[in-house]
Amino acid sequence: KVLFETDDSVAAGAMWGVSKHYLHMAREANLAQADLVLAVTPELARHLQRTARAPRWLPNGVELGRFADASGDRSDDAMLPGPVAGVIGQFSARTDIALLGDVQAAGISLLLVGPRWFTTAEQNAEFDELIARPGVRWVDAVPREQLTQYLSQIDVGLTPYVDSMFNRRSYPLKTLEYLAAGIPVVATDVATTQGLDDRFVSVADRESFVDSVMRALASEWDRAAIAESVVNDGWPARATQVLAWIDSERDA
Q1: Between β-strands 109-113 and 36-39, what pairing exists: parallel, antiparallel or unpaired?
Q2: From CA 140, how far away is CA 228, in angstroms rounded?
Q3: What is the reported pLDDT for 252?
Q4: CA 44 to chain centre
Q5: What share of the chain is helix, strand, coil (3-state, %, to 5)?
């Protein structure tokens, strides 16, 4: 039996509206039954260790073929004056909306693509204020096969996470997807970027985030080299690794 924790499921309780006690008990039961435990980040792996055998670190993968060509036809409803910073994904309590506002205030266009899942009136109002600003365009959920139309608009991809336990133990898919599309990334210093090429991923605290975005926009980038940096991070490679671990468990 294999347990793969793709996020800290207990820390997610408040966002999901599910009892943390229930989630804790369910996870402990699964940990007790698992022959092989996988965790999406090293920190989460350490958190899940219950025996002398440490869980294995299995970071998220990326659909390399889907994001290999982000230079196709541009979507008419996403055109913005450059330079453009973008966020592709879900917008929720995990997202630092104020930080995105700081990016817009620096004269950088923002393309935001994905559904909103805010749980409070204050969060919804903050997001409404942001997307009402000039130079900001929000596009609700789109089919994954259309994402490259929006990625083709972006000069730099943002992973603007607030500092929370859930985010610290996460491995954002969006960061991998930007890189697979040949787009440099600026991320807050919250979620791990371990294993990613730091030539193309800039990690910044809140105070230096906008400056990092500006530097990324002022730089010349080899998009093919950026995409090449995650060529070994596709889901087939992740599956091969899992199968190898399963075989080692069987031989033990």
Answers
A1: unpaired
A2: 29
A3: 67
A4: 16
A5: 40, 15, 40
- Using the CB atoms, write b or e for 216-233: b if 16+ within 10 Å: bbeeebeeeebbebbeeb
Tokens of 233: 């991070």
Q: How far apart are CA 48 and CA 218, in angstroms?
A: 41
- Determine the number of helices (DSSP H) and then strands (DSSP E) in the chain: 12, 9
Contact between 190 and 41 (Cβ < 8 Å): no
* Among 78, 105, 87, 90, CA closest to 175: 87
Report the length, in residues, of the chain.
Answer: 252
* C-alpha span between 220 and 153 (Å, rounded): 16
What whole-number distance in Å separates Cα of residue 112 and Cα of residue 236?
A: 29
Taking each helix axis as running N to C, give the angle between helix 97-105 and helix 209-218, from 0 to 180 degrees, rounded to the nearest 10: 50
Q: Are 80 and 113 in contact (CB under 8 A)?
A: no
Two tokens, residue 232: 């070994």
Q: How many Å from the N-terminal Cα to the C-terminal Cα in the chain? A: 14
- CA pair distance 25, 20, nearest whole angstrom: 9
Residue 47: other Cβ atoms inside 10 A = 16
CA distance 213 to 25: 42
Distances in Å between the alpha carbon of 212 and those of 97, 131, 204?
A: 17, 22, 7
Q: Is the pTM of this model over 0.90?
A: yes
Secondary structure of residue 96 in the 3-state scheme: coil
> Exposure of 209 by Cβ count < 10 A (0-12 exposed, 13-18 middle, 19+ buried)?
buried
Q: Summarize pLDDT for 25-74 with one digit per residue, the tens.
A: 999 999 999 999 999 999 999 999 999 989 999 999 999 998 887 754 44
